[in-house]
Design a protein that fits this description.
The chain is of the alpha+beta class. The chain is built from 3 helices and 5 strands; from the N terminus they run E-E-H-H-E-E-E-H. Helices cover 23% and strands 22% of the residues. The longest helix has 7 residues.
C-alpha cells in the first residue's frame, strides 16, 4: 500500500513521505497506523535497494482496497 492512516495524528501518510521521517519517530508512531480501506492495523516496510517504501496490513475480508472495481483504491495501493 502506498497510503496509511495514522490514528495518532489523524493524517494520511504516503509511504515515501513517512520513510523520510526520523527512524525514532517512525518507531514511536508505527503502532498507530491503520489501513484506509478497512481500519486493520498496518505496518511500515522500509525501503531497500530493490524495493520502495510501503505499508502493509492484514486486511479484513470486506476491505475496500481489495474489492474489484474500486479505481481510487487501486491508485492508493
Amino acid at each position: 500500500m502506498k497510503w496509511a492512516l495514522s490514528t495518532r495524528d489523524g493524517r494520511d501518510w504516503h509511504a515515501a513521505e513517512y520513510s523520510e521521517r526520523d527512524p525514532s519517530w517512525r518507531k514511536s508512531s508505527q503502532r498507530g497506523l491503520v489501513c484506509l480501506g478497512c481500519g486493520s492495523p498496518a505496518f511500515f516496510r522500509a525501503p531497500s535497494r530493490k524495493k520502495t517504501p510501503a505499508f502493509g496490513a492484514r486486511h479484513k475480508d470486506d476491505c475496500a482496497l481489495l474489492a474489484e472495481g474500486w479505481g481510487v483504491f487501486k491508485y492508493l495501493q
